[in-house]
């Protein structure tokens, strides 16, 4: 194995595809005064404090919903279940109403709730950090529902199930 000194975007992306992650959809309401539902696919999510129950995720500044997330006071995190690949395609689209034709309810804070997920958490935004081409968002977990369903995974640039990667 040769050590790569000139790390290109493509080389970095390829290396990071070897890091298996879960897939989540973050939902909230728009900050434009209309409070319409918004959502985004996210696999850049981490627990950062068990004491305070904090999570961290990031949003690309080129995202069409970036301004909404930058000022969001709260949001829902949905860990997708292995049978929810269709939601990844829906929420990864740009420039469309991702909730059109989708039945959903909202929380008391007005955030959309997706059903059939593995885990759902509602969070209040505690801090944001501006970094290069992304914004880091830290949220305090207010409510948590764990349905115990097998999660949808992302590995080698593909959506996978636990069975497909050989984990029991």
Task: Please provide a written account of the structure.
It is a single chain. The chain has 168 residues and is α+β, with helices and mostly antiparallel strands. Helices cover 15% and strands 40% of the residues. The chain has four helices and twelve strands; from the N terminus they run αβββββαβαββββββα. It has helices spanning 9-16, 66-71, 85-92, 162-165, and strands at residues 21-22, 24-29, 37-42, 45-49, 54-60, 74-79, 105-106, 112-113, 119-131, 134-146, 153-155, 158-160. The protein has a seven-stranded antiparallel beta sheet. The protein has a three-stranded antiparallel beta sheet with strand order 1-11-12. The protein has a two-stranded antiparallel sheet with strand order 7-8. The mean pLDDT is 94.
Quick gist of this model?
The chain has 168 residues and is α+β, with helices and mostly antiparallel strands. 15% of the residues lie in helices and 40% in strands. The longest helix has 8 residues.
Which properties best describe this structure?
Pnp Oxidase, Chain A, 7-stranded antiparallel sheet, alpha+beta, 12 strands, 3-stranded antiparallel sheet, 168 residues, 4 helices
SS summary, helix count: 4
Strand content: 35-45%
CATH topology: Pnp Oxidase, Chain A
At the first level of CATH, the class is: Mainly Beta
Which structural class fits the helix and strand makeup? alpha+beta
Radius of gyration: 16 Å
* Sheet with the most strands, sense and barrel status: 7 strands, antiparallel
